[in-house]
Amino acid sequence: MRSLFEPNINLVGKVMDLQLQRQNVVSSNIANVKTPGYKPKELAFEKELQDAMALDARGKITRTHAGHYPGAFDPETFEGDLSETFKPRVIFGEDRVNMDKEMAKMAKNSLHYNALTQVIKGSFDGVRNIIMEGQK
Question: Is 0.85 topped by the overall pTM?
Fold first, then answer.
């Protein structure tokens, strides 16, 4: 019998892995702030995650026909998209690491990661409560 608990934990775990990878990319950018010719990298996975889960940009399920169910998401085969291609910036024409932007990305990423840990903790607390109530 399939569980409702396991797919959700797998999904959250995969997103946490991607958040950790993003944190490593941002840390690398910050570490190379003084490196001549270094171009910042970025790990983007939100759009691909929504596509893999058959969701639109607002988080609603997308379907090609009203009678269709959304496709199944497989967290084992999903990966983020590490962008190493140079994208010129229009403002000031700079192509180097912007410390303020990287620190903001790091703070935002940390908040997302901490929120996901709370989601997993809540899931395990719920299972624990069910087990404890079942023992009474």
Answer: no
Helix (H, G, I), strand (E, B) or coil at 83: strand
In the numeric block, the tokens 């950018």 are attached to: 29
pLDDT digits (tens, 9 = 90+) for 9-20: 888 888 898 899
If we measure between CA atoms, which residue out of 12, 41, 36 comes closest to residue 26?
Answer: 41
Q: Give the residue among 48, 46, 108, 44 at the shortest CA–CA distance from 82.
A: 44
Contact between 32 and 38 under an 8 Å Cβ cutoff? The reply is: yes
Distances in Å between the alpha carbon of 9 and those of 5, 83, 88, 122?
6, 27, 38, 11
By three-state DSSP, how is residue 82 classified? strand
